[in-house]
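ok new one. same drill as before - structure tokens go in, u give me an amino acid for every spot. 238 of them this time. try not to just spam alanines like last time pls lmao
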């Protein structure tokens, strides 16, 4: 699953590097979904040229995109889902590592901070901010996460069926972690490569960092989102 917003160039790079043959040799059938937040570039064209499924999202923000994708996944007959950003920062050739670990764990998280980060891939502010948020998350919840803000995750069907989420923006990964802990899902951290972004960054260091921190605190205090408690959706954004 690939969230997009004006990511035509990055999406093309990702598409060219998905190891279809290796994944199929592992016994998996591949379906690629592009969840789009209203792109005005050639993202939809790139999607169709690569025979991926183009899925316009409801609402705005990465959280809304992820939750829509999770709902569609649960409606499908698929057994596992790997999500990564479409900006070229994550290497799709590492997807088989996620699928391999999903045979033993419920959730697999790509760890940039202990992996191989290209020199110009992450600013110093983002590097230290990611470390701080990751330490806070582990301290608050008691379950180790090595890279809270990673955009490279793998899930079993069981894991996604248990997630309870209401995030709309870039705090979605933090909430996925808190929900995994709440649902007692087994998490595996694996080191990954992190490269320079193709195109303009959309993450605002300070504002989004604060939103992520606030989500950690809110979920620590209140636990399950109110949407899930009252039966009016939680993954879905309607």
């Amino acid at each position: 699953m690939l969230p997009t917003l004006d990511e035509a160039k990055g999406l093309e790079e990702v598409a060219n590097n998905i190891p279809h043959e290796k994944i199929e040799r592992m016994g998996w059938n591949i379906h690629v979904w592009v969840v789009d937040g209203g792109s005005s570039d050639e993202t939809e064209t790139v999607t169709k040229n690569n025979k991926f499924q183009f899925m316009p999202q409801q609402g705005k923000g990465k959280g809304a995109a992820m939750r829509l994708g999770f709902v569609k996944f649960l409606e499908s007959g698929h057994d596992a889902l790997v999500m990564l950003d479409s900006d070229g920062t994550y290497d799709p050739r590492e997807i088989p590592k996620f699928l391999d670990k999903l045979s033993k764990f419920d959730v697999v998280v790509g760890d940039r901070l202990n992996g191989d980060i290209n020199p110009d891939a992450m600013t110093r502010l983002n590097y230290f901010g990611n470390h701080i948020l990751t330490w806070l998350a582990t301290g608050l919840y008691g379950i180790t996460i090595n890279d809270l803000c990673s955009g490279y995750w793998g899930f079993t069907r069981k894991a996604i069926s248990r997630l309870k989420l209401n995030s709309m923006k870039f705090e979605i990964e933090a909430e996925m972690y808190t929900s995994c802990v709440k649902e007692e899902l087994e998490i595996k951290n694996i080191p990954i490569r992190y490269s320079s972004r193709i195109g303009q960054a959309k993450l605002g260091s300070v504002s989004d960092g604060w939103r992520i921190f606030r989500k950690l605190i809110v979920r620590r205090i209140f636990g399950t989102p109110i949407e899930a408690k009252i039966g009016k959706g939680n993954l879905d954004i309607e």
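The two ends are 20 Å apart (CA to CA). and btw The mean pLDDT is 92.
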